[in-house]
Amino acid sequence: MVPGNSSTVVEFILLGLTSRHDLQILLFIIFLTCYIVSIIANMLIIWISYIHPRLHTPMYFFLRNLSFLDICYTSCVVPRMLINFLSVKKSISYKSCVSQMFIHMCLGGTECFLLLSMAYDRYVAICSPLHYTNIMNPILCINLATISWVGGLINAIVNMVYTLQLPFCGPNVVNHFFCEAPTLLELACADTSLNKTILFFCAIVVAVVPFFFILITYFNILSSILKIRTATGRRKAFSTCASHVIVVTLFYGTIFFMYLRSGNIHVSNQDKMATLLYSVITPMLNPLIYTLRNKDVKLAVKETKRKKTVTE
Fold it and tell me: Which DSSP state fits 277?
């Protein structure tokens, strides 16, 4: 028995992405590479933006938060997935499963709010450039980041409270590579309509509402850009927003696919691919997108290499 719960399930079996042994070895190599690249790239973004004074701006403050979040995000999912690729019994304890679900939902909610904060930063930079320093002061940046993390935490707590009240008496086979909320609801031995409603409502508050405000923000940004007389000015303004737009599109597209479907939730291979995209691939791509399209970061990296060469 699981303490504090009427469940008789003490562990779950994760089916993963495939049952073919040869593919599991290949997938292990692929996702281990993705995980290493993700950790190194995000740590590099944090380090570079911290040591270079030119990057001590609100934009890079939020980017450091995003990189730290992505490190936690991918670390919540990938290590267990890698272990199961090489394991005969692909099990996870009940406590580890619900803990993984809690952390994943907390980080996912935080990223939704954080992307909104980053959109607001770009809005102020382009639409009110003369007042940018006064508006995006350190106190406001810290408050926006704090609200993002607290919002993600509340989202996870609400869903966790109702999930822990569900009995899990079998089956215990999870058709996924990690413990995601919609998947667990399928295994409960009770009516989960309330849980699904709460999950859907939280997705509206945490994902749809911030996304709606992001759209409004970029509508105003686009209007301001189109008013810029020179082509060079418009191109520069577009460039400052391009990376964020790509990241928002990748993240929100898959989030909406997974959490905004009403009715019976059935986890298919398409669902697993969508989860892979926003839980594993996007955290790896985020630092690459910002680095490849950002002159300030590339210049900071060159300066670091130059200093290292001079020192040697």
Answer: I
What superfamily in CATH does domain 11-311 come from? Answer: Rhodopsin 7-helix transmembrane proteins (1.20.1070.10)
- Under a CB-based contact definition with an 8 Å cutoff, are residues 176 and 14 in contact? yes
Q: Alpha-carbon distance 305 to 311, whole Å?
A: 10
User: Could you tell me the residue ranges of all domains in the chain?
Assistant: 11-311
User: Are the beta carbons of 55 and 48 closer than 8 angstroms?
Assistant: yes
Peptide bond into 171 cis (omega under 30): yes
Q: Tokens 């409004």 appear where?
A: 216
pLDDT digits (tens, 9 = 90+) for 246-289: 888 888 877 777 666 544 445 566 777 778 888 888 888 888 88
> Is the separation of the CB atoms in 143 and 185 below 8 Å?
no
pTM exceeds 0.70: yes
3-class SS at 229? coil
The two beta strands, 11-14 and 173-174, are parallel
Which residues on adjacent β-strands are paired with residue 173? Answer: 13
Given a cut of 80, whether residue 80 has pLDDT beyond it is yes
Q: Which long-range contacts (CB under 8 A, 24 or more apart) does 161-168 make?
A: 162/194, 162/195, 162/198, 163/98, 163/101, 163/195, 164/4, 164/5, 164/98, 165/5, 166/7, 166/190, 166/192, 166/195, 167/5, 167/6, 167/7, 168/2, 168/5, 168/7, 168/8, 168/9, 168/94
Q: How many angstroms separate the CA atoms of 225 and 232, rounded? A: 11
**Cβ-proximal residues to 48 (8 Å cutoff; 6+ apart), any chain:** 55, 297, 300, 301, 304
Helices (H), ranges, the chain: 21-51, 58-85, 94-127, 132-135, 138-164, 181-185, 193-203, 209-226, 231-259, 269-276, 282-292, 295-311
